[in-house]
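From the methods appendix. Each design record in this collection lists the tokenized structure first, followed by the designed amino acid sequence. Records were kept in a plain field format so they could be parsed without special tools. The example shown here is representative of the layout used throughout.

RECORD:
FOLD TOKENS (183 positions):
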């Protein structure tokens, strides 16, 4: 009897693994209240009149999402490195294919603005005050990065790359993004 129970439990665990694994590579859809400047809206290919953000509204080939918190010392350390990465990306021949957003988990619009101003962030930052995106993306520590294929077709929404924690070398990170996106 115990052998049969063990076999049944192992089968259920294996099935649960495959069911969750099959969906782990698709970025979740969620909606967050957001306001964008015209430049920010253009950088991700959305209308400046939108009042909510959904990753699936982005009209770029690829979306890089940074999950951060203004209170996270690692995120604070990452901010100038991320700015360097953004400058390198802007100088690349494929810059127009990428959108970048930061999602401030547990942060209010006021807190996100403080982070934006303190670290001179030049890409859209979106508050996630009630942890909607944080929960939907797997409640990772901060910072956490997702590279998502946003091209039309069957692969839309596929997570091409994830990076947990601070990346120290913006050039190496750019090379990894290039490689994972096939550019």
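DESIGN:
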């Amino acid at each position: 009897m115990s052998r049969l129970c063990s076999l049944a439990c192992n089968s259920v665990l294996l099935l649960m693994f495959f069911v969750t694994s099959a969906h782990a590579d698709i970025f979740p859809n969620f909606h967050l209240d957001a306001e964008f400047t015209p430049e920010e809206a253009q950088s991700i290919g959305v209308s400046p009149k939108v009042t909510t953000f959904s990753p699936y509204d982005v009209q770029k080939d690829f979306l890089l999402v940074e999950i951060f918190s203004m209170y996270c010392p690692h995120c604070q350390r990452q901010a100038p490195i991320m700015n360097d990465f953004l400058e390198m990306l802007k100088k690349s021949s494929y810059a127009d294919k990428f959108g970048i957003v930061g999602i401030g988990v547990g942060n209010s619009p006021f807190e996100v603005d403080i982070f934006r101003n303190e670290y001179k962030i030049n890409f859209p930052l979106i508050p996630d005050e009630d942890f909607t995106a944080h929960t939907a993306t797997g409640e990772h520590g901060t910072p956490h990065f997702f590279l998502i294929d946003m091209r039309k077709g069957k692969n839309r929404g596929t997570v091409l790359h994830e990076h947990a924690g601070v990346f120290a070398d913006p050039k190496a990170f750019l090379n990894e993004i290039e490689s994972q996106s096939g550019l």
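APPENDIX NOTE: DSSP finds six helices and seven strands in the chain.
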